[in-house]
Amino acid sequence: MFGFTLKQLRYIEAAARTGSIASAAGELNISQSSITAAIDKFEEDLGYALFIRVPAKGISTTPSGEEAMKLIRGFIDGARHLESDMRSVGGKTTGTLRLGCYATSAPQVLPRLLKGFIRDYPAISIQIFEGDLRSVTEFLENGEVDIALTYDLTRSDHQRFEPLFEAPAHAVLPSDDPLAEQESVSPAELAQRPMVLLDLPRAREYFMELFAHHGLTPRVVHSARSAEIARALVAGGFGFTILNIRYAEQDGTRQDFVMRPISDQRFFPVFGMASMADARQPRIVEAFLAHCRELAAQRVFDEIVVRP
Questions:
Q1: Structure letter (DSSP) for residue 7
Q2: Which of 38, 50, 165, 181 could lock onto 8 through a cystine, CB 3.0 to 4.6 A?
């Protein structure tokens, strides 16, 4: 007879996600034998293997196990949403909201989204999962987050995407660069200078396409994996970089770089909220979506973009 508990499913999901029985046990603060017993019982009842066990290398899911994990994560997610909705029946929206956010945008976007929401819903706790564009999409599709705050560059047919704001690319230039005196710069002007590339999956291709559309190839001399490092290299005079979210300037702080809009862009990426199209959203998620829509209508994000 096939039977399971929610606790067993959580053990199995943690093992699949971490790729290690030991790591799953440490995350859940239980014994490794409890994880192993849950996997063994589940596999015995199913009649097929969920995992391949490789000594000293951990575990990996079989093709059948990968499909099973999608169902298990959906079930766990539904159970969590049910608990949240049941606790909210009395009128107070409560529970945990899990947000995935593109890491380079998080410092400027999240405070604007969360400040008023936490004030209005103090019983809700927030978990933040940061990553590059590819990782944030995987968080969403694996059921690790309820909403992904990301660009429409990675949207798929089975996702629902709600825009928050357009984010044109802008150049970040050393303050002593002659281009800093101009109101805007062109891809042709930038292509003549050394570039510090924000080298992240999908973002890399987008930045290079800004030049390729005009038949140009930028002179990439340095690369960075974070916007903060890219800006620091620019401030040090190592070249220019391209970003989409404006750096929060502070009064009285010396700036060693300037931000200028880029002309002749083929399109402007849109930053917004991605969720799974076929998922029933619990009250906690709907409350957050409504809050974000209101902020977008108030144009609170205008100050963090550089428009041509």
A1: H
A2: 38
**Which residues, in sequence order, are CB contacts of 239 under 8 Å at separation 6+?**
193, 194, 195, 196, 221, 222, 233
Cβ-based burial of 273 (10 A; exposed 0-12, middle 13-18, buried ≥19): buried
Task: Show the 3-state SS of 199-238.
Answer: CCCCHHHHHHHHHHCCCCCCEEEEEECCHHHHHHHHHCCC
How far apart, in whole angstroms, are the C-alpha atoms of residue 170 and residue 269?
Answer: 12
Where exactly are the structural domains of the chain? 6-66, 88-165+273-304, 170-261
Question: Cα–Cα distances in Å, from 261 out to 91, 163, 164, 297?
Answer: 47, 21, 20, 23
What are the backbone dihedrals phi and psi of residue 239, each rounded to the nearest 5 degrees, phi first?
145, -170
CATH topology of domain 6-66: Arc Repressor Mutant, subunit A (1.10.10)
Residue pLDDT, tens place only, 105-156: 999 999 999 999 999 888 888 999 999 999 999 888 877 888 999 999 877 7
The more confidently predicted of residues 96 and 161 is 161
Class of domain 170-261: alpha beta
**CATH class of segment(s) 88-165+273-304:** alpha beta
Q: From CA 262, how far away is CA 185, in angstroms rounded?
A: 5
Higher pLDDT pick, 178 / 28 = 178
> Which one-letter DSSP state was computed for residue 122?
T
User: 174 pLDDT exceeds 90?
Assistant: yes
pLDDT surpasses 70 at 94: no
Tell me whether the CATH fold assigned to 6-66 matches the one assigned to 88-165+273-304.
Answer: no
Which has the closest alpha carbon to 137: 125, 149, 123?
A: 149
Non-local (6+) Cβ contacts of 123 within 8 A are 92, 93, 94, 95
What residues contact residue 275 under an 8 Å CB cut-off, 6+ apart? 140, 146, 147, 148, 159, 160, 281, 285, 289
